[in-house]
Specification:
The chain is mainly α and 416 residues long. The chain is built from 11 helices and 4 strands, in the order ββββααααααααααα. Strands 1-2-3-4 form a 4-stranded antiparallel beta sheet, with helices on one face.
Protein backbone atom coordinates (compact mmCIF):
# COMPACT_ATOMS: atom_id res chain seq x y z
CA UNK A 1 0.00 0.00 0.00
CA UNK A 2 1.36 3.36 -1.10
CA UNK A 3 1.63 6.24 1.45
CA UNK A 4 -0.01 9.60 0.69
CA UNK A 5 1.96 12.02 -1.38
CA UNK A 6 3.82 14.50 0.72
CA UNK A 7 2.71 18.19 0.60
CA UNK A 8 4.39 20.17 -2.10
CA UNK A 9 3.28 23.57 -0.73
CA UNK A 10 1.13 24.99 2.09
CA UNK A 11 -0.19 28.40 3.25
CA UNK A 12 -2.59 29.43 6.08
CA UNK A 13 -5.82 28.75 4.09
CA UNK A 14 -4.82 25.79 1.98
CA UNK A 15 -2.25 23.30 0.75
CA UNK A 16 -1.19 21.40 -2.37
CA UNK A 17 -0.29 17.71 -2.29
CA UNK A 18 2.41 16.04 -4.29
CA UNK A 19 0.00 15.02 -7.07
CA UNK A 20 -1.20 18.64 -7.45
CA UNK A 21 -4.44 18.30 -5.45
CA UNK A 22 -5.46 21.57 -3.76
CA UNK A 23 -7.28 21.72 -0.43
CA UNK A 24 -8.88 24.68 1.42
CA UNK A 25 -8.95 24.75 5.21
CA UNK A 26 -12.35 25.46 6.87
CA UNK A 27 -13.74 25.27 10.40
CA UNK A 28 -15.16 21.91 9.46
CA UNK A 29 -11.81 20.61 8.20
CA UNK A 30 -10.13 20.46 4.83
CA UNK A 31 -12.07 20.39 1.55
CA UNK A 32 -10.68 19.59 -1.85
CA UNK A 33 -11.20 22.45 -4.30
CA UNK A 34 -9.33 21.22 -7.36
CA UNK A 35 -6.18 19.70 -8.88
CA UNK A 36 -3.33 21.06 -11.04
CA UNK A 37 -0.89 18.15 -11.61
CA UNK A 38 1.02 19.87 -14.40
CA UNK A 39 1.84 23.09 -12.53
CA UNK A 40 3.93 23.90 -9.54
CA UNK A 41 2.44 24.05 -6.07
CA UNK A 42 2.85 27.84 -6.01
CA UNK A 43 1.02 28.17 -9.31
CA UNK A 44 -1.77 25.94 -8.06
CA UNK A 45 -2.24 27.94 -4.82
CA UNK A 46 -2.00 31.23 -6.71
CA UNK A 47 -4.70 30.11 -9.16
CA UNK A 48 -7.20 29.13 -6.47
CA UNK A 49 -6.26 32.12 -4.32
CA UNK A 50 -7.16 34.41 -7.23
CA UNK A 51 -10.56 32.76 -7.31
CA UNK A 52 -10.96 33.65 -3.64
CA UNK A 53 -9.86 37.22 -4.30
CA UNK A 54 -12.49 37.50 -7.02
CA UNK A 55 -15.13 36.35 -4.52
CA UNK A 56 -13.78 38.74 -1.89
CA UNK A 57 -13.99 41.61 -4.39
CA UNK A 58 -17.57 40.64 -5.20
CA UNK A 59 -18.44 40.65 -1.48
CA UNK A 60 -16.72 44.00 -0.96
CA UNK A 61 -18.58 45.52 -3.90
CA UNK A 62 -21.87 44.17 -2.56
CA UNK A 63 -21.10 45.68 0.87
CA UNK A 64 -20.55 49.07 -0.69
CA UNK A 65 -23.80 48.93 -2.70
CA UNK A 66 -25.88 47.74 0.25
CA UNK A 67 -24.42 50.23 2.74
CA UNK A 68 -24.60 53.04 0.17
CA UNK A 69 -28.31 52.40 -0.41
CA UNK A 70 -27.88 51.61 -4.10
CA UNK A 71 -30.07 48.50 -3.74
CA UNK A 72 -33.51 48.09 -2.28
CA UNK A 73 -33.77 45.63 0.63
CA UNK A 74 -35.27 42.98 -1.64
CA UNK A 75 -32.61 43.49 -4.29
CA UNK A 76 -29.87 43.41 -1.64
CA UNK A 77 -31.25 40.22 -0.06
CA UNK A 78 -31.34 38.49 -3.46
CA UNK A 79 -27.76 39.59 -4.20
CA UNK A 80 -26.51 38.36 -0.79
CA UNK A 81 -28.22 35.01 -1.38
CA UNK A 82 -26.61 34.72 -4.80
CA UNK A 83 -23.11 35.57 -3.54
CA UNK A 84 -23.58 33.32 -0.51
CA UNK A 85 -24.30 30.43 -2.88
CA UNK A 86 -21.09 31.20 -4.72
CA UNK A 87 -19.04 31.33 -1.49
CA UNK A 88 -20.41 28.06 -0.03
CA UNK A 89 -18.55 25.24 -1.78
CA UNK A 90 -16.43 27.71 -3.73
CA UNK A 91 -13.46 26.17 -5.55
CA UNK A 92 -11.11 28.72 -4.04
CA UNK A 93 -8.48 29.08 -1.33
CA UNK A 94 -8.94 31.77 1.27
CA UNK A 95 -10.99 32.81 4.29
CA UNK A 96 -14.33 31.62 2.94
CA UNK A 97 -15.87 31.61 6.47
CA UNK A 98 -14.83 35.28 6.78
CA UNK A 99 -16.61 36.12 3.55
CA UNK A 100 -19.70 34.27 4.76
CA UNK A 101 -19.67 36.22 8.04
CA UNK A 102 -19.47 39.46 6.11
CA UNK A 103 -22.48 38.34 4.11
CA UNK A 104 -24.31 37.51 7.34
CA UNK A 105 -23.49 41.02 8.58
CA UNK A 106 -25.06 42.40 5.42
CA UNK A 107 -28.25 40.49 6.19
CA UNK A 108 -28.48 42.45 9.46
CA UNK A 109 -27.91 45.73 7.61
CA UNK A 110 -30.60 44.75 5.08
CA UNK A 111 -33.03 43.99 7.90
CA UNK A 112 -32.37 47.43 9.41
CA UNK A 113 -32.84 49.06 6.02
CA UNK A 114 -36.05 47.15 5.50
CA UNK A 115 -37.35 48.40 8.86
CA UNK A 116 -36.26 51.93 8.02
CA UNK A 117 -38.05 51.70 4.71
CA UNK A 118 -41.12 50.44 6.43
CA UNK A 119 -41.05 53.38 8.84
CA UNK A 120 -40.31 55.79 6.00
CA UNK A 121 -43.12 54.32 3.95
CA UNK A 122 -45.52 54.69 6.86
CA UNK A 123 -44.39 58.28 7.34
CA UNK A 124 -44.81 59.07 3.67
CA UNK A 125 -48.21 57.42 3.62
CA UNK A 126 -49.26 59.51 6.62
CA UNK A 127 -47.91 62.65 4.99
CA UNK A 128 -49.59 61.67 1.75
CA UNK A 129 -52.87 61.22 3.57
CA UNK A 130 -52.56 64.65 5.17
CA UNK A 131 -51.64 66.16 1.81
CA UNK A 132 -54.54 64.46 0.03
CA UNK A 133 -56.94 65.64 2.73
CA UNK A 134 -55.57 69.14 2.23
CA UNK A 135 -56.01 68.85 -1.54
CA UNK A 136 -59.57 67.58 -1.16
CA UNK A 137 -60.43 70.40 1.26
CA UNK A 138 -58.97 73.08 -1.04
CA UNK A 139 -60.83 71.61 -4.02
CA UNK A 140 -64.08 71.73 -2.02
CA UNK A 141 -63.48 75.41 -1.24
CA UNK A 142 -62.77 76.11 -4.89
CA UNK A 143 -65.96 74.34 -5.93
CA UNK A 144 -67.94 77.20 -4.33
CA UNK A 145 -65.81 79.99 -5.81
CA UNK A 146 -66.40 82.07 -8.95
CA UNK A 147 -62.73 82.58 -9.78
CA UNK A 148 -63.08 80.81 -13.11
CA UNK A 149 -59.61 81.47 -14.56
CA UNK A 150 -57.37 81.00 -11.51
CA UNK A 151 -59.67 78.33 -10.08
CA UNK A 152 -59.37 76.13 -13.19
CA UNK A 153 -55.58 76.47 -13.16
CA UNK A 154 -55.47 75.62 -9.47
CA UNK A 155 -57.65 72.54 -9.96
CA UNK A 156 -55.19 71.27 -12.58
CA UNK A 157 -52.28 71.89 -10.23
CA UNK A 158 -54.07 70.02 -7.43
CA UNK A 159 -54.61 67.03 -9.74
CA UNK A 160 -50.89 66.93 -10.58
CA UNK A 161 -50.04 67.13 -6.87
CA UNK A 162 -52.43 64.24 -6.19
CA UNK A 163 -50.78 62.08 -8.85
CA UNK A 164 -47.35 62.66 -7.30
CA UNK A 165 -48.44 61.34 -3.89
CA UNK A 166 -48.25 57.65 -2.81
CA UNK A 167 -51.36 55.51 -2.70
CA UNK A 168 -52.94 54.93 0.69
CA UNK A 169 -54.90 51.98 1.86
CA UNK A 170 -57.75 51.40 -0.59
CA UNK A 171 -60.70 52.58 1.51
CA UNK A 172 -58.95 55.78 2.66
CA UNK A 173 -57.59 56.56 -0.79
CA UNK A 174 -60.95 55.96 -2.46
CA UNK A 175 -62.82 58.13 0.05
CA UNK A 176 -60.43 61.06 -0.38
CA UNK A 177 -60.47 60.66 -4.16
CA UNK A 178 -64.29 60.80 -4.16
CA UNK A 179 -64.17 64.10 -2.23
CA UNK A 180 -61.60 65.54 -4.59
CA UNK A 181 -63.28 64.27 -7.75
CA UNK A 182 -66.72 65.49 -6.63
CA UNK A 183 -65.34 68.97 -5.91
CA UNK A 184 -63.68 69.10 -9.35
CA UNK A 185 -66.88 67.97 -11.04
CA UNK A 186 -68.95 70.57 -9.15
CA UNK A 187 -66.53 73.36 -10.00
CA UNK A 188 -66.38 72.34 -13.67
CA UNK A 189 -70.18 72.18 -13.91
CA UNK A 190 -70.56 75.66 -12.37
CA UNK A 191 -67.81 77.03 -14.61
CA UNK A 192 -69.43 75.65 -17.75
CA UNK A 193 -72.79 77.06 -16.67
CA UNK A 194 -71.20 80.46 -16.05
CA UNK A 195 -69.58 80.61 -19.46
CA UNK A 196 -72.75 79.36 -21.13
CA UNK A 197 -74.65 82.22 -19.48
CA UNK A 198 -71.84 84.62 -20.39
CA UNK A 199 -71.99 83.53 -24.02
CA UNK A 200 -75.73 84.08 -24.01
CA UNK A 201 -75.25 87.60 -22.58
CA UNK A 202 -72.55 88.32 -25.14
CA UNK A 203 -74.86 87.26 -27.95
CA UNK A 204 -77.50 89.63 -26.57
CA UNK A 205 -74.89 92.39 -26.27
CA UNK A 206 -73.90 91.78 -29.89
CA UNK A 207 -77.49 92.37 -31.04
CA UNK A 208 -77.76 95.57 -28.97
CA UNK A 209 -74.41 96.90 -30.17
CA UNK A 210 -75.22 96.20 -33.82
CA UNK A 211 -78.28 98.45 -33.43
CA UNK A 212 -76.21 101.12 -31.68
CA UNK A 213 -73.64 101.05 -34.48
CA UNK A 214 -76.41 101.50 -37.05
CA UNK A 215 -77.76 104.52 -35.11
CA UNK A 216 -74.27 106.01 -34.74
CA UNK A 217 -73.55 105.64 -38.45
CA UNK A 218 -76.91 107.24 -39.32
CA UNK A 219 -75.95 110.31 -37.27
CA UNK A 220 -72.39 110.77 -38.50
CA UNK A 221 -73.37 113.22 -41.27
CA UNK A 222 -75.53 115.45 -39.04
CA UNK A 223 -74.71 119.16 -38.70
CA UNK A 224 -77.11 119.69 -35.83
CA UNK A 225 -74.14 119.85 -33.50
CA UNK A 226 -75.70 120.29 -30.06
CA UNK A 227 -78.58 117.76 -30.15
CA UNK A 228 -76.51 115.21 -32.08
CA UNK A 229 -73.66 115.46 -29.55
CA UNK A 230 -76.21 114.64 -26.85
CA UNK A 231 -77.45 111.65 -28.87
CA UNK A 232 -73.91 110.32 -29.19
CA UNK A 233 -73.48 110.62 -25.40
CA UNK A 234 -76.68 108.60 -24.95
CA UNK A 235 -75.45 105.99 -27.41
CA UNK A 236 -72.16 105.71 -25.50
CA UNK A 237 -74.01 105.15 -22.21
CA UNK A 238 -76.09 102.42 -23.85
CA UNK A 239 -72.92 100.88 -25.34
CA UNK A 240 -71.29 100.62 -21.91
CA UNK A 241 -74.48 99.27 -20.35
CA UNK A 242 -74.78 96.55 -23.04
CA UNK A 243 -71.70 94.73 -21.75
CA UNK A 244 -69.13 92.86 -23.87
CA UNK A 245 -70.00 90.94 -27.02
CA UNK A 246 -67.77 88.09 -28.29
CA UNK A 247 -64.31 89.65 -28.53
CA UNK A 248 -63.72 89.41 -32.27
CA UNK A 249 -67.19 90.80 -32.99
CA UNK A 250 -66.93 93.41 -30.22
CA UNK A 251 -63.68 94.81 -31.66
CA UNK A 252 -65.19 95.17 -35.13
CA UNK A 253 -68.39 96.78 -33.84
CA UNK A 254 -66.43 99.20 -31.65
CA UNK A 255 -64.27 100.19 -34.63
CA UNK A 256 -67.41 101.07 -36.63
CA UNK A 257 -69.04 102.84 -33.65
CA UNK A 258 -65.93 104.84 -32.90
CA UNK A 259 -65.46 105.65 -36.58
CA UNK A 260 -68.97 107.14 -36.78
CA UNK A 261 -68.29 109.23 -33.66
CA UNK A 262 -64.96 110.44 -35.01
CA UNK A 263 -66.54 111.47 -38.31
CA UNK A 264 -69.25 113.51 -36.60
CA UNK A 265 -67.08 115.13 -33.94
CA UNK A 266 -64.32 115.80 -36.46
CA UNK A 267 -66.80 117.71 -38.62
CA UNK A 268 -68.17 119.50 -35.56
CA UNK A 269 -64.68 120.49 -34.42
CA UNK A 270 -63.87 121.81 -37.90
CA UNK A 271 -67.09 123.85 -37.90
CA UNK A 272 -66.34 125.13 -34.40
CA UNK A 273 -62.85 126.10 -35.49
CA UNK A 274 -64.35 128.16 -38.31
CA UNK A 275 -66.78 129.73 -35.83
CA UNK A 276 -63.90 130.50 -33.49
CA UNK A 277 -62.15 132.39 -36.27
CA UNK A 278 -65.35 134.31 -36.98
CA UNK A 279 -65.98 134.92 -33.26
CA UNK A 280 -62.42 136.21 -32.86
CA UNK A 281 -63.08 138.82 -35.56
CA UNK A 282 -66.34 139.75 -33.82
CA UNK A 283 -64.40 140.23 -30.59
CA UNK A 284 -62.03 142.65 -32.30
CA UNK A 285 -65.02 144.62 -33.60
CA UNK A 286 -66.45 144.83 -30.10
CA UNK A 287 -63.11 145.94 -28.71
CA UNK A 288 -63.23 148.89 -31.12
CA UNK A 289 -66.84 149.65 -30.08
CA UNK A 290 -65.79 149.59 -26.42
CA UNK A 291 -63.05 152.09 -27.11
CA UNK A 292 -65.65 154.32 -28.79
CA UNK A 293 -68.03 153.91 -25.85
CA UNK A 294 -65.30 154.69 -23.32
CA UNK A 295 -64.76 158.06 -25.00
CA UNK A 296 -68.32 159.07 -23.99
CA UNK A 297 -67.15 159.28 -20.37
CA UNK A 298 -67.23 161.45 -18.41
CA UNK A 299 -70.65 162.60 -19.69
CA UNK A 300 -70.71 166.29 -20.65
CA UNK A 301 -73.85 166.24 -22.77
CA UNK A 302 -76.35 163.60 -21.63
CA UNK A 303 -78.44 163.61 -24.81
CA UNK A 304 -75.40 163.19 -27.08
CA UNK A 305 -74.04 160.45 -24.84
CA UNK A 306 -77.35 158.53 -24.85
CA UNK A 307 -77.77 158.81 -28.62
CA UNK A 308 -74.17 157.74 -29.24
CA UNK A 309 -74.48 154.77 -26.85
CA UNK A 310 -77.70 153.65 -28.55
CA UNK A 311 -75.94 153.63 -31.92
CA UNK A 312 -72.95 151.74 -30.43
CA UNK A 313 -75.32 149.18 -28.83
CA UNK A 314 -76.97 148.51 -32.20
CA UNK A 315 -73.60 147.91 -33.81
CA UNK A 316 -72.58 145.77 -30.76
CA UNK A 317 -75.54 143.45 -31.25
CA UNK A 318 -74.92 143.30 -34.99
CA UNK A 319 -71.28 142.27 -34.42
CA UNK A 320 -72.46 138.82 -33.33
CA UNK A 321 -71.03 136.21 -30.99
CA UNK A 322 -67.51 136.23 -29.52
CA UNK A 323 -65.35 133.36 -28.15
CA UNK A 324 -66.79 131.97 -24.94
CA UNK A 325 -63.70 132.85 -22.89
CA UNK A 326 -63.98 136.56 -23.87
CA UNK A 327 -67.74 136.97 -23.61
CA UNK A 328 -67.93 137.82 -19.89
CA UNK A 329 -65.15 140.42 -19.98
CA UNK A 330 -66.49 142.25 -23.03
CA UNK A 331 -70.08 142.32 -21.77
CA UNK A 332 -68.97 143.51 -18.33
CA UNK A 333 -66.97 146.44 -19.77
CA UNK A 334 -69.86 147.51 -22.01
CA UNK A 335 -72.31 147.34 -19.08
CA UNK A 336 -70.05 149.69 -17.07
CA UNK A 337 -70.36 152.40 -19.72
CA UNK A 338 -74.14 151.87 -19.83
CA UNK A 339 -74.39 152.13 -16.05
CA UNK A 340 -72.27 155.28 -15.94
CA UNK A 341 -74.51 157.10 -18.46
CA UNK A 342 -77.64 155.77 -16.77
CA UNK A 343 -76.27 157.01 -13.44
CA UNK A 344 -75.91 160.53 -14.85
CA UNK A 345 -79.44 160.33 -16.24
CA UNK A 346 -80.83 159.13 -12.91
CA UNK A 347 -79.03 161.88 -11.04
CA UNK A 348 -80.45 164.52 -13.41
CA UNK A 349 -83.92 163.15 -12.98
CA UNK A 350 -83.57 163.20 -9.22
CA UNK A 351 -82.47 166.85 -9.39
CA UNK A 352 -85.54 167.80 -11.41
CA UNK A 353 -88.03 165.71 -9.45
CA UNK A 354 -90.60 168.20 -7.94
CA UNK A 355 -91.80 165.74 -5.34
CA UNK A 356 -88.26 165.16 -4.09
CA UNK A 357 -87.62 168.93 -4.07
CA UNK A 358 -90.77 169.50 -2.08
CA UNK A 359 -89.73 166.85 0.42
CA UNK A 360 -86.34 168.53 0.77
CA UNK A 361 -87.93 171.99 1.30
CA UNK A 362 -90.33 170.55 3.86
CA UNK A 363 -87.41 168.98 5.74
CA UNK A 364 -85.64 172.39 5.87
CA UNK A 365 -88.78 174.09 7.14
CA UNK A 366 -89.43 171.45 9.81
CA UNK A 367 -85.85 171.63 11.07
CA UNK A 368 -86.01 175.45 11.25
CA UNK A 369 -89.26 175.32 13.23
CA UNK A 370 -87.84 172.69 15.57
CA UNK A 371 -84.72 174.80 16.18
CA UNK A 372 -86.82 177.91 16.98
CA UNK A 373 -88.86 175.87 19.43
CA UNK A 374 -85.73 174.49 21.09
CA UNK A 375 -84.25 177.99 21.38
CA UNK A 376 -87.39 179.22 23.17
CA UNK A 377 -87.15 176.30 25.60
CA UNK A 378 -83.46 176.96 26.09
CA UNK A 379 -84.08 180.66 26.91
CA UNK A 380 -86.81 179.70 29.37
CA UNK A 381 -84.52 177.22 31.13
CA UNK A 382 -81.80 179.85 31.40
CA UNK A 383 -84.30 182.35 32.84
CA UNK A 384 -85.23 179.94 35.64
CA UNK A 385 -81.61 178.96 36.10
CA UNK A 386 -82.27 175.29 35.08
CA UNK A 387 -78.77 174.54 33.81
CA UNK A 388 -79.38 170.85 33.07
CA UNK A 389 -82.33 171.50 30.76
CA UNK A 390 -80.57 174.48 29.24
CA UNK A 391 -77.59 172.26 28.40
CA UNK A 392 -79.82 169.51 26.91
CA UNK A 393 -81.64 172.02 24.71
CA UNK A 394 -78.36 173.54 23.59
CA UNK A 395 -77.04 170.14 22.53
CA UNK A 396 -80.25 169.32 20.64
CA UNK A 397 -80.08 172.72 18.89
CA UNK A 398 -76.49 172.02 17.78
CA UNK A 399 -77.43 168.61 16.39
CA UNK A 400 -80.44 169.86 14.44
CA UNK A 401 -78.48 172.80 13.07
CA UNK A 402 -76.02 170.30 11.54
CA UNK A 403 -78.97 168.43 10.05
CA UNK A 404 -80.32 171.72 8.73
CA UNK A 405 -77.05 172.44 6.93
CA UNK A 406 -77.28 169.06 5.16
CA UNK A 407 -80.96 169.58 4.32
CA UNK A 408 -80.29 173.01 2.79
CA UNK A 409 -77.43 171.56 0.75
CA UNK A 410 -79.74 168.80 -0.55
CA UNK A 411 -82.37 171.46 -1.45
CA UNK A 412 -79.77 173.57 -3.25
CA UNK A 413 -78.82 170.53 -5.37
CA UNK A 414 -82.20 170.54 -7.10
CA UNK A 415 -82.44 172.54 -10.30
CA UNK A 416 -85.14 175.16 -10.69
Amino acid sequence: MNSPDPDRSTEPWGRVTGDGTVFVRTVDGERQVGQMPDGTAEEALAFFTRRYEALAFEVELLEQRVKGGALSPDEAAAAVKQVHGAVIGAQAVGDLEGLDKRLDALRGTIAERREQRKVERARKVEEGKAQKEKIAAEAERLSDSTDWRNGANRMRDLLEEWKSLPRLDKSTDDALWRRFSTARTTYTRHRKAHFAELNEKRDSARVVKEKLVAEAEALEGSTDWGPTSGKYRDLMRKWKAAGPAPKAVDDKLWKRFRGAQDTFFGARDAANAELDREFAENAETKEALLAEADRLLPVTDLKVAKDSLRDIADRWDAAGKVPRDRMKDLESRFRKVEQAIRGVEDDKWQRSNPEARARAADSVEQLQDSIEELRAKHDKAVAVDDTRKAADHAAAIETKQSWLVQAKKALDDFSD
